[in-house]
Protein 1
Amino acid sequence: MKKNADWWRQAAIYQIYPRSFKDSNGDGLGDIKGITSKVDYLQSLSLDAVWLSPFYPSALADGGYDVADYRNVDPRLGTLKDFDKMLKALHKADISVFVDIVPNHSSDQHLWFQEALKSEPGSAARNRYIFRDGRGKHGEIPPSDEISHFAPSAWTRTTNSDGTLGQWYMHLFAPEQPDFNWDNREVQLDFIKTLRFWADRGVDGFRIDVAHALKKDFKRLHIAKKSMSGFEIAQDGSDILFDRNEVHEIYREWRKVFDEYDPPRVAVAEAYVHAKRRMLYARPDELGQAFNFDLLGADFDARLFKKIISDNIRLAQSEGSSSTWVLDNHDRVRHATRYGLPKKTDLIQWLLSDGKSAKLDKELGLARANAATLMLLALPGCTYMYQGEELGLFEVEDIAHDDLQDPQWLRNVVPQMVKGKISGLALIHTDKGRDGCRVPLPWQARTASFGFGREKSHLPQPKWFAEHAVDTQDKVNDSNLSLYRRALALRKKYQSGEELEWISTGNPEVLHFKRPNGWHCVTSFNSKSFALPAGEILISSAPIKGGKIKANTTVWLKA
Ligand code: NOJ
């Protein structure tokens, strides 16, 4: 069924991390056919759309966010034919499809980068990326002090064909992810070609990776020394590396392409910048929507939630967009874990300690996670969910070091003295990375790799995954999965309009808002017992007794 042009404003969107969703051929990696085989499952969640993280050919230096060919499928994950079949099956189930566009950088295996390496300084091939001479007498010092997200420096030196050392190239992420030169028209046009390639196949939307980083101030690049944190950057569009005003010209051009299609193609920006600046990417003549990540770093706290919700609805409306809500994605510790740890737990240290530095209260974490999810699903706007949260999955915090894949783990190392050793130095990892939320999904409790594939999965699954397996949860009425299914189906029935009215509860620990169609949502964050207002209970994240809700619970009412 053809959707109207505004379908995305109130959508429930589910992120699939393809390599960890379902493996159809037993090679340990999830694949496109695996997704097709689970369309019924996705349909059972009443989703409006799925967003697929990169499935393109890649050396997997950064889980696929190092793309070697933007207009193809990684042969380990399938073929374009498989992709078309999957798209057709999802569309038949009325589920739209977003693909991930990674425009800031390619893989170092991309043909253009390989060509650039073989070409002379100053050549057209090098000008597609950001090559510069080094500082110092022999060019031995990187062109600037800029720090990359994964490696110590954002510059890597090349070696010439005669074995001598050559120019440096820039990479905001791993050395295997060279940044494009977005001042180059050839680069701009090639991405438009990529957008059309997928839109012509029927893809409905695009998630734009690091959307705020494409344009750099080349005149001042030599003095750049920022880290990746988007929150330290200038808020007037004048930063050397991020969120520059000119980046919006790119998205205005893309919007014209999106609007050639019927319905217009949809896009969402990943831009780690201040909320006000983020909304610029969401303007109707640009991408239309931007991820609001404010809840990813927020405690389960009534005041914080109310502020974030109110601010984001207001901001989105001011730019003619609709808000987005995100509690989980492939880059963050799962929300059931975050909420089950003592307040102020340093998540990086907790992961580095394999979960030993603080005690995880799983029951509390899951209760809060479901209360928060149910609350977000009742809000106006678009909710983005991440595969596995419907199963109540926690972060896998104790993956053995040898099994870790994430460059955030592999590259964040510092030399440290080893006590008692004469030779002295060892490399210590300072960040365990994001593999713990990327462990392949458990489909069946009792089969090898929990029904993900045939034998081993590319990241090891812990034993406790059995309790969360889809077939375990299918057998019981009050499972986490059934809560998600019921909530998403109800949401589909009730969601309309973008109005939200806060209703005073007289209790700062309880939030209550009303939506059109007599739809009410009440969340008790930390109030032991709160008498529910009158109305028919539609669903609750925990059992309700005697018309009262406990702490860490959300209830939807019809009144
Ligand atoms: C953001 C993606 O979400 C993350 O997974 C990736 O490492 C970086 N962008 C670089 O592409």
Protein 2
Amino acid sequence: MSETVQLPDSVDLVDEPNGPVLRIDHDRATGEIHLHGAHVTSWAPSGSRDQLWLSPESEFGPGSAIRGGVPICFPWFAKGPGDWEPQHGFGRRLPWRLHHAGEDDHGVTIALRLASSDVPDGTEGRDRWPYEFTAQFSVTFGDTLTLSLTVANCSDQPMPVGGALHTYLAIPEIERLSVRGLDGVSYQDKVAGGEDEQDGPITFTGETDRVYAGSGVVVLADGDTSLGAVRNTGVRHTVVWNPWSAKASAMPDFPDDGWHGMVCIEAAVPYDAAVVVAPGEKCTFGQQIVPASA
Ligand code: TA6
């Protein structure tokens, strides 16, 4: 499961139903990451609330995806080219290996790895994407949360890489939320269908599921109160999602009223815009979450 990695004083490894979990307790932040799916489920900068939303009804069983936190969609986003299962790829459904854990005055950095040899024969979706690869996910828990997924092509053919850092942010109330930074950017509207262009800040009056053809920094506000910012790097698309009431009620691992307190802001690589990684090369995409208090 993991090479023998020395844990710093601010990191504990505990066993949970879906496997080992690293608990971080540092002067600058607390946090939690499951080896299952390399899934960050908590991050609270010192003196602040947890910035991530995690469903209290999430499953934590082997093979299932955790609802909330930062699901890693890999090696494809959504259904890949259109009909691939499982949704959002197999990376979030498998145990990753602990590769590194370190701390300094600024926080704690954890690195987890998933390689071809870690993907069991028969894993759903593996036959769709049979490449030899090594994925490394690094996360720094500090005043900000910095996430980075690097995928190396260890095969002898070009390797298309899609995916997303599908981050669930905890917010006071979706009906008061505004998201600035994508004004004028075109987007695929997965609710209404078709394409549109963002006019001013994004506000929410119903189910919202949009793939924006732009990335960079977005700023969130609850009415006139800043909630902080999200910076997406190494990607050309930003996904914004809130399921609203009907979709929330239809998800067994999502509280019926949970949609009020969350929004997903995702650093995304849709499969039709996949990064084609040459043999021996790698690609990296990332996200940094900056709370209002930073
Ligand atoms: O990123 C938005 C989205 O693609 C939505 O369409 C919705 O399916 C969401 O992901 C959650 O997907 P999941 O497979 O985690 O239920």
Protein 3
Amino acid sequence: MKFALVTGGSRGIGKAICLKIAELGYHILVNYRSNNQEAEDTLNQIKTLGGSGELMKFDVSNSDEIRASLDKWKENNPESVIEVLINNAGIRKDALIVWMKDEDWKDVLNTNLDSFYYITKHLVQDMIVNRYGRIVNVVSLSGIKGLPGQTNYSAAKGGVIAASKALAQEIAKKNVTVNCVAPGFIKTDMTQELEEKDLKRLIPMSRFGNAEEVADVVAFLASPKASYVTGEVVSINGGLYT
Ligand code: NAP
């Protein structure tokens, strides 16, 4: 059996990624933080489509929880390697910097950036030994362009982009690739309160994207077909260039 971990896999973009990667034949480890019902629903949909998976509940902003969960899984699956890692879980807590609370800066950095470090560091060693791996990080247009009101989120996503480029070079020889996808406006719970009818004027394609359109690109980068692509950032934003 081949294993893939999708963080924040229970809802939104992560859920669509779980379903697409299951089609590649992977047993999906669906990570989430709190919403058990949504996670169960996602797992059921994977199974309905003929795939397999299991739930892996931990908070990606908590390094102790990450370590405990991944160590426990390895103990139960000593011969298995998680060869695909999708670092997707993320949050935003927007405010102009003068109004930003210290805890909102830290929460966003911990959840979006530190999680990349702790989870990737834990799993990449097996990928290197195995001489195969695919790491895909879900970043954002904010991490490329910077968006006002999102200094915390832009810093975190920009940090993941830079770290991905560095790591890609560290491990390219081991046949482990590291890439990012940078969505623009995608219809999920995260963007629920945004007005598509006002914002679509900024987007050449005149609409928000959907989670499946992101998941298709992620699935390609996570597949053996993307064998010569590493250190890249693919924008998925309907032409909303920087
Ligand atoms: P979403 O609909 O809010 O879903 C977030 C997912 O992440 C949920 O499965 C949630 O699990 C999980 N999650 C959140 N915090 C977590 C934590 N600390 N530990 C473990 N899981 C956690 O978000 P989305 O729109 O799909 O966004 C997915 C990724 O795309 C994020 O990295 C986001 O920054 C990025 N992105 C989104 C957009 C957009 O327009 N939607 C644009 C650019 C980039 P629970 O349900 O258990 O909380």
Protein 4
Amino acid sequence: MDMKALETISYGMYIVSTKNDNKNYGCVINTLTQVTASNVLVSITLNKENATNQALRESKKCAVSILSEQATSELIAKFGYFSSVDTDKFQGINIKDSDGISVVTEGACGYLVGEVVNIVSCDTHDIFILRVTKAEQLTEEKPMTYRYYHEVLKGKASSKAPTYQEETVSGGKKYRCTVCGYIYDDEKETIKFEDLPDDWKCPRCGVGKDKFVEVN
Ligand code: FE
């Protein structure tokens, strides 16, 4: 199977947020699709191991922020590579309340709020069907596509995303970020990993050098 063909499928970039037991949960997804038009239903796909999935099963209500090209890689890394269980992803970013849900407005050109009407189990992931109860456009900025995220922000799918593909490593000295999987390849860089300054950060998720391990 030519996995390259799958990379040509178009997606957007979104942050799903929900509140359960008075705690905020949120994660990045690239899988939102409008299902029906008149009585608006959308579908989103979440990994079964994701804390946001478990929270949404119980809260049955969430917001989906539509990220624009203004969204930073730090924002996407925060919601994409860390767990809501041990990280307060909502700390220090712009949010607004909508019926008790913290909607991420930072880097977003709009958002939807919806109620879960159906959950379809698909192997590692669940498709949540949402009935949209509220929608608001926030800015005129262009929505970010998954391709833009890859090509301009140099982003990569989290290991829990349905579109995740493992990076292959061959020859030379390479280092892998244990948080996001980013590979630093000495052969392709002008500075060797060992010579990078101590405050150097992973270009994809923002963690320090200490989170990198050498891979062969
Ligand atoms: Fe990283």
